[in-house]
Write a structure and sequence with these properties.
The protein is an all-alpha fold and about 160 residues long. The chain is about 60% helix and about 0% strand. It folds into 2 domains: about 80 residues, no CATH class; about 70 residues, no CATH class.
Amino acid sequence: MGIRYEEALQYDNWVRFEAVYKGTYAHDLSDGLKAINSDTELKDLLVSALTDRYQFYYTKSDRLTTYSKKMLDLLNQKSFMFSSPSPRTNLLEQSQKHILNGSILFPYLYKVRSLWGDEGLKKCLAFLYTEFENYEPNNDVILWLKKYSVLYTNKGYPFK
């Protein structure tokens, strides 16, 4: 029966978000708050801080919820973005490390080269490239790119 009770009665669904930030991220967020010059920047800071740490999925389909998508879309409609190191920003490097050290890709390529030599390896890589051209990314990949493409583009290639 809070101050928004009457408003909440007008909707079929009501979602409330609360978050607690601690440690370095909380200090970075405080610094970001001090630099705010407008209501828009405040909204952008809060939405960015929330989506950096929390994204919500439907349990049955494992798809991003409508409200999470809407929050991420808000980030594409602004020029200011709160940026602090987040575990999610490391995903590209983690994926690369997994490919190099933990996936079956390199053992597979090694077996191909052992069986058919460098020519077989080249044909295998050409085949994989052709298959990649037909790859359809899922929503998680597209949403990740929306959120982090500017960061990674400015950061440069993660591979040497």
